[in-house]
Amino acid sequence: MALTEESIVDRIEVMEQGQLQVRTANVVKRDGVEISRTFNRHVVRPGEDLSGEDAKVRAVGEAVHTAECIAAWEAIVAARIPLKE
């Protein structure tokens, strides 16, 4: 009886301002038959480093995160009202 585990980027959603919402499925198999699947999500914002991302996420990020997209995202972030300390 062999247990294996793999992580698969199974969903990449492009949000309105260019953020990428990435879902990773963690799949556990026993003798090749899936017995468990859990999900994790994270967000990649325009201008963030893509080097540590899955190849599919890098490809989408490189296509979506244009200079215009990054500038628009930076303007959105700059316009936010800072939280009071």
Q: SS-based structural class?
A: alpha+beta
Largest sheet: 3 strands, antiparallel
Which outline best applies? elongated
Rounded radius of gyration (Å):
17 Å
How helical, in percent, are the residues?
A: 25-40%
Distance between the termini: 55 Å
Q: H/E series, N to C? A: EEEHH
How many domains would you count in the coordinates? 1
Poorly predicted tracts of residues: none
Annotation field: number of helices: 2
Give a short summary of the structure.
By secondary structure, the protein is an alpha+beta fold.
Explain this structure.
- The chain is of the alpha+beta class and 85 residues long.
- The protein has one domain.
- Helix content is 27%, strand content 41%.
- A three-stranded antiparallel β-sheet has the order 1-2-3.
- A hairpin with a 2-residue loop joins strand 2 and strand 3.
- The longest helix has 13 residues.
- It is elongated and about 55 Å long.
- The termini are far apart.
- The mean pLDDT is 94.
SSE blueprint:
Blueprint: E1 3-14, E2 20-30, E3 33-44, H1 55-64, H2 67-79
Antiparallel strand pairs: 1-2, 2-3
Which key phrases capture this entry?
85 residues; alpha+beta; 3-stranded antiparallel β-sheet; 3 strands; elongated
